[in-house]
Design a protein that fits this description.
mainly alpha
């Protein structure tokens, strides 16, 4: 009869089991840490690319906003002159060149269109989380202000149409074009004598009816009161500069 010899199995003590467990634990932990570091580097790299693109968008926006604010501030000042003229004198006793030139700006019209391709891409992909929480919060606030000013521009459009209709009841298209031409040339090459020469003329108006003048003034005043009260454009410009500074500081 054969005798079977069982192999001798050496039992491990507690320290050996603990060392094996510790080595496996460390290997898994280091792999987890390495993966997190890799993801962190990838996300930071993506954040840098998004930041660089958004900085260019914001620079374009601030240029547009500065022009937008300058245009409406300029127009509002001329409308103030127009209303002050009619507040103290009958239209028949005012040189119509002044009425044509200053009254022209009731129809001032410009829209702000944000350069938001990068922002919309980040929103749709959830990539705003790549930015630090405070930067992401300020970017979101900028986006909200952009939508607010666009909403204002849309509401203002209907009033703008009514202003143009009221203006057409008072001012001749021919001389309106002449006044606009003077303004355009003066914007390209400032020359006050050109403006002074036009406002000293006396081209005919379609009417001197005070009711029609009053209707025009009320419509124009409504447009510019809303513009000043909302003051969205200044807030938007400040927010754009804030985000620009944060992105430049964080991503060099």
């Amino acid at each position: 009869m054969e005798v079977h010899h069982h192999p001798h199995v050496e039992k491990k003590n507690f320290k050996e089991y603990f060392l094996e467990f510790l080595m496996i634990f460390l290997a898994v932990t280091m792999g987890f840490i390495a993966e997190n570091i890799r993801e962190g580097i990838t996300e930071h790299h993506r954040a840098e690319m998004y930041a660089a693109s958004m900085i260019q968008d914001l620079k374009a926006d601030t240029t547009q906003l500065n022009s937008y604010i300058k245009y409406y501030t300029f127009s509002a000042n001329y409308i103030d002159t127009f209303m002050n003229l009619l507040a103290v004198k009958d239209p028949k006793n005012i040189l119509s060149g002044k009425l044509y030139y200053y009254g022209l700006f009731g129809g001032a019209h410009r829209k702000f269109i944000p350069n938001d391709a990068t922002l919309q891409q980040m929103k749709s992909s959830g990539s705003l989380t790549y930015f630090k929480p405070q930067i992401a919060k300020d970017v979101a606030k900028y986006d909200l202000l952009c939508r607010s000013i666009q909403s204002y521009d849309e509401m203002n459009h209907n009033l703008y149409v009514e202003v143009r209709k009221a203006r057409a009841m008072i001012f001749s298209f021919r001389y309106n074009e002449m006044a606009n031409d003077v303004w355009q040339k003066n914007m390209q090459s400032p020359y006050q004598a050109r403006v002074d020469s036009f406002i000293q003329t006396n081209p005919p108006l379609l009417t001197y009816d005070k009711t029609l003048f009053n209707e025009y003034i009320e419509l124009v005043r409504s447009r510019f009161i809303r513009f000043y009260n909302l003051n969205i454009s200044d807030s938007l410009l400040n927010q754009a500069n804030l985000v620009l500074n944060e992105l430049n500081k964080e991503y060099k």
